[in-house]
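Quick sanity check, Mitogen-activated protein kinase:
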Amino acid sequence: MAEFVRAQIFGTTFEITSRYTDLQPVGMGAFGLVCSAKDQLTSQAVAIKKIMKPFSTPVLSKRTYRELKLLKHLRHENIISLSDIFISPLEDIYFVTELLGTDLHRLLTSRPLEKQFIQYFLYQILRGLKYVHSAGVVHRDLKPSNILVNENCDLKICDFGLARIQDPQMTGYVSTRYYRAPEIMLTWQKYDVEVDIWSAGCIFAEMLEGKPLFPGKDHVNQFSIITELLGTPPDDVIQTICSENTLRFVQSLPKRERIPLANKFKNAEPQSRSRQMIARHTSTHKT
């Protein structure tokens, strides 16, 4: 039986096997805490994510199981890799993964990104998504804080707790608002991998502009900001909305025309592939 040791991180107890030492706090989220540690077996630095009370509710149990199952099977250069997992005597679950130095959110809030880094990061994001989507998986919560980066600018997508195997009927409430696709926001349940591409486009725009593209205060304000840039959705798309309340809300909005993206992203080089890619993503999306 493995020997466990305790340490206080973020005011909570980390109860880990003696294989891992030198714990240091890294970050915290709604569903878990992360610290760095040294793996005595490999002498490598690792990240340890504590899933608190994973069996306390059916929702948390499903989320933990989904993330574990996907991390066990997904193997790609741009996807975080799982190296170990254990359950503590207190019945918390710990995921051990490779350690990267920072995340894209921290980078974006610390300094403007140079164009070559923006293009390289976008390439890696889309490369990772292509692999995930080819496995029939939708991430559903892609955002800068779920994109890890190391000192060599290698990028890895993490946090698959909300990811799902693609299904015709998907639950509606997922992803952080700024990066949430309209079909999720408007409670369309029939959505697919395009919601991740929408999130990637929002992240790309944030890398270009240094601020969120659609910083909505709530769902209503979020959708209004989207239509200010991309215009009113066509009638055939509006008619696919299932919720009567949502349909009335969308139909009550003033008609708006799409703003040319060349006007919005004036700092992007006209000849670059970057602005062309934003245009392609937004023009082919449902809005």
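Posting the structure with no commentary besides this: The longest strand covers residues 20-28.
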